[in-house]
Amino acid sequence: MSETGNRLRKLLESQNFDPQNHVKQLSQQSDGDRDLQEHRQKIQNLADETAQNLKKNVYKNYRQFIETAKEISYLESEMYQLSHILTEQKSIMESITQALISTDKDETSKEMQAAFPKETEELKQRTLTSLLEKVEGGKNIMDTPGRHLVYNGDLVEFDVDNMSPIQKVHAFLMNDCLLIATWLPNRRGTVKYKYNALYDLESFAVVNVKDNPPMKDMFKILMFPDSRIFQAENSKIKKEWLEILDETKKNKVTKDRHKKEEEVPVSPVRAEVSTNPFDQEEEQQPAGEVEESVDLSLEWIQELPEDLDVCIAQRDFEGAVDLVDKLNEYLKEQPVNQRVKELRLKVEERLRQLSEVLVFELSPDRSLRGGPKATRRAVCQLIRLGQSTKACELFLKNRAAAVQTAIRQLRIEGATLLYIHKLCNIFFTSLLETAKEFEMDFAGNTGCYSAFVVWSKTTMRMFVDAFSKQVFDSKESLSTAAECVKKAKEHCQQLTEIGLDLTFTLQSLLVKDIKAALQSYNDIIIEATKHRNSEEMWRKMNLMTPEALTKLKDEMRSCGIASFDQYTGDDCWVNLSYTIVAFTKQMMSFLEEGLKLYFPELHMVLLESLREIILVAVQHVDYSLRCEQDPEKKAFIMQNASFLHDTVLPVVERRFEEGVGKPAKQLQDLRKSTRPVRINPDSTTSMV
Question: For residue 3, what pLDDT band results from cuts at 50, 70 and 90?
């Protein structure tokens, strides 16, 4: 840049630059319009130079932008995994803290009980009765003998979905149940509350809710499949609720267990042996005594429903299924009685909730990151629960959504071949990983493999839609389309390593578009040949330079015409017409691209296209032979006809047979029917 340009740049870059003052000074100093035009040109040159430098910097740092974007994507994935791990660790730490608090609370309660005498049962019941008199519809709650009040207080209920306050409630915790009553807006005498719900202590689980201001001092009660969220007045009252609820639930379990252990079993009476066959029903009457022999007083069985609730809430799916397997193994050879049926009903309710959670884990609405391995946990647990069909269906839906998302996120590049290369890598890699994961997860469920084959064909249709839209709908050249189809076939062949062959499916989905592409290119070649024929002068080619002649020889040799040297003359002359040479190169190129696209369904399409193209050239030569009167030009035309018949057509037949695997009888018949015949030097010469 000149010194004047540097001064102008520094002036424009200065912080105190004022455009209006600059224009005024420039107008005063200029002698006329010419100075202003020169100054304008300098500013324009400076703007062009700045734009060029900016463009160079963008190109220079383009690779760094791409690498930075990739690193950000990887970092985002790692942060997501780290967040998930930290959440699980925090959940574990909270459960350990709650266990320690519970242990300390137990020890404190024992000390308090030793220091102070307990309230009598009658006093607790009188207290509960006096409180329930304030609850509308709560008179029948005291019908259960031994029921007394443990704790009560005001709470605020929040909506589970949008975390908005719903109503103010008063909770009554009793030794075997929890009563929720709502506040009455219009009080009637001593009645302050209205009965809302009564929950047995075994029917719900209590979960601490993390403080997230302004939402704080909350805890959740899970009554599967429903749940309710309550907010205490402060953190101290919330802590008391959590501790007393946990302690009361444990006391009830312990009391029930001791009560069952203290029950004296009835001594079985030995039935008399009867020879009367009609007494079989009477002999089966002691079955009730057999029911008492099933021991369900074990601590892990008593706490099993609650443990399942906790496992589901903490997303410990493996632990929940392990507990169910342990129970099934224990009850496998035990007789079925009423108590066992009740226990199984409670467990089945938890299993239904567990299945719903696992189904949600596999739903396409969840994050699709992590690949097929991310679904293994939920799939394996569903299979262990005997729901392999549902697991298979959800797994394949999840993977289909992942493949569709990956294809949509693929950026459409300017170069079609580059886009197809990326598309094939994404699709077939995902398909291969899905197949391997499917084989690993469903190894013992051979009945699911047919579903995977159907899913693979459906997913292949999704791939072909994106493929055809980019390759065929955009009217790419036949050579580009052939390379793209070849690339897709190569990737499809890689699936045979795992025993999955989708080549026929790919071909059947592409056959319509390939037929249209061949026909379109066939029409283009015919139109180009007719146009050259209309301008044909039947003159020898003069390539002017030896380099051009050498290049033409190499092109003909690559087309399979090894004897082209015999048609070259002295210096740079070729004893053939430009039209015939151009036709030969274009037709051989069409043949090679067509063979890349070839599969059996396209046999007749490719064959008929070649036949139509050849007939156009042959008919033009035949017409020229019949119409030409100059003997020298007739001889030259005859030489071109011999080149077509004796050199080009045999090469087309041989190359077609090599690419397809069988001879083309139609091309052989065409060559026989178009052989050039010279009757005598003075008569008309034509191709018969």
Answer: low
Burial letters 574-608, b for 16+ CB under 10 A, else e: bebbbbbbebbebbbbbbbbbbbbbbeebeebbbe
* Beta-bridge mates of residue 169: 155, 182
Residues with Cβ within 8 Å of 406's Cβ and at least 6 positions away in sequence, in order, are: 426, 427, 430
d(CA 415, CA 476): 10
- Find out whether 243 and 264 touch, Cβ atoms under 8 Å: no
The residue count of the chain comes to 688
Confidence of residue 263 (pLDDT cuts 50, 70, 90): low
- Residue 142: what are its φ and ψ, rounded to 5°? -85, 5
- Phi first, then psi, for residue 374 (nearest 5°) are -65, -20
The answer, yes or no, to whether the previous bond of 225 is cis (omega within 30 of 0) is yes
End-to-end CA distance of the chain: 74
Pull the structure tokens for residue 635. 């001889």
Cβ count near 657 (within 10 Å): 14
Cβ atoms 430, 399 nearer than 8 A: yes
Tokens of 214: 């302004």
The model's confidence at residue 156, banded by pLDDT at 50, 70 and 90, is very high
Cα 349 to chain centroid distance, Å, stands at 31
Give the dihedral of Cα atoms 359, 363, 368, 372; nearest 10 deg.
50
Residue found under tokens 């007045």: 233
Farthest CA pair distance, the chain: 141
Question: Is the pLDDT confidence value at 682 over 70?
Answer: no
Question: How much of the chain exceeds pLDDT 90, in percent?
Answer: 2
Which residue from 567, 576, 579, 596 is spatially nearest to 655, judged by alpha carbons?
A: 596
CB neighbours of residue 115 within 10 Å = 7
Contact 148, 168 (CB under 8 A): no
* E strand residue ranges, 500-632: 540-542, 573-577
Contact partners, residue 472, CB within 8 Å, separation at least 6: 481, 513, 516, 517
Contacts of 454 by beta carbon, 8 Å cutoff, 6+ apart:
none
